[in-house]
Amino acid sequence: MNSSYKKIQVEPIADALGAEISGVDLSNLDSDSYEEIRRAFRQYSVIFFRDQALSPDQHVSFAERWGKININRFFKPLDTHPKIATVIKEPDQIMNIGAAWHTDHSYDQIPAMGSILVAREVPPSGGDTHFSSMYKAFEALSPGLKKMLGSLSAWHSSRHAFGKMGQSGDNKGDDRLGNSELATQDALHPVIIAHPETGRKALYVNADFTVKFDGWTEQESKPLLEYLYAHGRRTEFTCRFQWQKHSIAIWDNRATWHSAANDYQGYRRVMHRITLDGVPLVAGAAAQ
Fold first, then answer.
1. How far apart are CA 231 and CA 219, in angstroms?
2. Is 3 part of a structural domain of the chain?
3. CA 252, 121, 236: angle at the middle one, nearest 5?
4. Distance CA 283, CA 86 (A)
5. How many domains does the chain have?
6. Residue 288 lies in a domain
7. Choosing from 120, 156, 189, 273, which is the catalytic residue?
8. Of all residues in the chain, what percent carry a pLDDT higher than 70?
9. Cα 176 to chain centroid, rounded
10. How far is it, in rounded angstroms, from Cα 68 to Cα 234?
11. Is 273 among the residues known to form the active site?
């Protein structure tokens, strides 16, 4: 238990990142408790809550305390609340959403700050989400590689994931995703960023949306990107969260990757996600 918090109880769940927070009702949150939650978010990069039966209205109200909501273009929205994206897997569906390690909205010119995911329906077992610290991933790189990556930027795109090519094959006819014609986003970001709130340096590429290094071809970029993807998911950088109904996770898209396990065939899983606007990313100066 982290005793530096007075209004909330904070229990780290792994050495690299992640903490479970208790002793608080997110539907009736005083300002001091909220500020401590924000501090825990900065400290642990991903925070978790149990037994928070937020209504969709309360989910939206809580998210708006953090910042402006970024309405997802491609996920099917909740019918009654267009600011909430639904992340669903039905019992007869083989593929889940979010299985590859990634960070949300890196294809945007100003990437998302964070995401708030609420568990509405979970399988009896399986469906955990894994998170990885991109602070730790950066820190474990060699000095030479840090220096080289610190001079690079990389292109991120929504086209291959959510465009017509991404919504074909195994995903064809899947009504969980849509608006493929809107998948036109391309964004250039530093490979090593300085986190806008903590100042810590973090690796900022991901397997879902990063296409290539700026000034390199995709073929030239692939070996180094594949190395960074394998490096970033090393076990010692990760934590794992086992969902229950009414659990909530809030993660920092500037400092983490996440991956949803697809190990619950024949069961339904329903999650509600709100994504939050961020600020422009800047390079981690002298990335060493």
1. 19
2. no
3. 40
4. 33
5. 1
6. no
7. 273
8. 90
9. 18
10. 33
11. yes
